Amino acid sequence: MKLIVYSRAPRDTKNLGRRLGSLLKGGEIIALTGDLGAGKTCFVKGLAKGLSLPEQDILSPTFIIIQEHFGRLPLYHIDLYRLDEIGLEELGLRDYLFSSGVSAVEWFERLREADELNCLEVKIGFEGGSVRRIELNARGDTYVRILHDLERCFLVARSEQGEASS
Ligand SMILES: Nc1ncnc2c1ncn2[C@@H]1O[C@H](COP(=O)(O)OP(=O)(O)O)[C@@H](O)[C@H]1O
Ligand SMILES: [Mg+2]
């Protein structure tokens, strides 16, 4: 299953992340891809909010690859940008990704085993100016269910606001 959402501003991207965060139960992998400045960290800020964490906790420092946060569920914010390639057995990644917390991984494609893992893919692309195309792809039954719920809460939000946000 696939869901495509157009974001017109950072707030839209965060809102989508927040809605997703509020639907998570733990054990999920959120696989973020997209070029520098696409909005991956912005999305994770929203995800944090949905897990009852302050979005200001989510930073994008140069040298830190893994940051742990403890909200409604643990959030492991992993950024593989500074690594050309990495395996699941390195840096304890397997333990994070197969824990009962939520792992949000930026530059997920740099993980050697990326294609083998069930996850929710979040691909963010530039569409000119501040518009972003966010494509969510469910890899595995758990993620299909989450995406269904996310789509439903998006449709409800749209009709409540009386404006299209996707
Ligand atoms: N629609 C949008 N969604 C997300 N970020 C946006 C959007 N429009 C502009 N931006 C800006 O793009 C940048 C995204 O940065 P960041 O989330 O750190 O990107 P990444 O982690 O993908 O490198 C921020 O400066 C943000 O303000
Ligand atoms: Mg980032």
Describe this entry's structure for a reader:
The chain is an alpha/beta fold and 166 residues long. The protein has one domain: 3-Layer(aba) Sandwich (Rossmann fold). 31% of the residues lie in helices and 26% in strands. Strands 1-7-6-2-5-4-3 form a seven-stranded mixed β-sheet. Strand 6 and strand 7 form a beta hairpin. Helix 1 crosses helix 2 and helix 1 packs across helix 4. The two termini are 16 Å apart. The structure holds adenosine-5'-diphosphate (ADP) and magnesium ion. Magnesium ion binds next to helix 2.
Summarize this, please?
The protein is built from four helices and seven strands. By secondary structure, the protein is α/β, with parallel strands linked by helices.
Ions, cofactors and other ligands present here are: adenosine-5'-diphosphate, magnesium ion
Question: Strand-residue fraction?
Answer: 25-35%
CATH topology: Rossmann fold
- Specify the structural class: alpha/beta
Q: How much is the radius of gyration in Å? A: 15 Å
Q: pLDDT below 50 for ≥5 consecutive residues: which ranges?
A: none
Arithmetic mean pLDDT: 94
Key traits:
single chain; 166 residues; alpha/beta; Rossmann fold; seven-stranded mixed sheet; 4 helices; 7 strands; 31% helix; 26% strand; globular; binds adenosine-5'-diphosphate; binds magnesium ion
What topology does this entry show?
Layout: E1 2-7, H1 10-23, E2 29-33, H2 40-50, E3 66-70, E4 74-79, H3 93-97, E5 102-106, E6 119-126, E7 132-139, H4 141-161
Parallel strand pairs: 2-5, 2-6, 4-5
Antiparallel strand pairs: 1-7, 3-4, 6-7
Helix pairs in contact: 1-2, 1-4
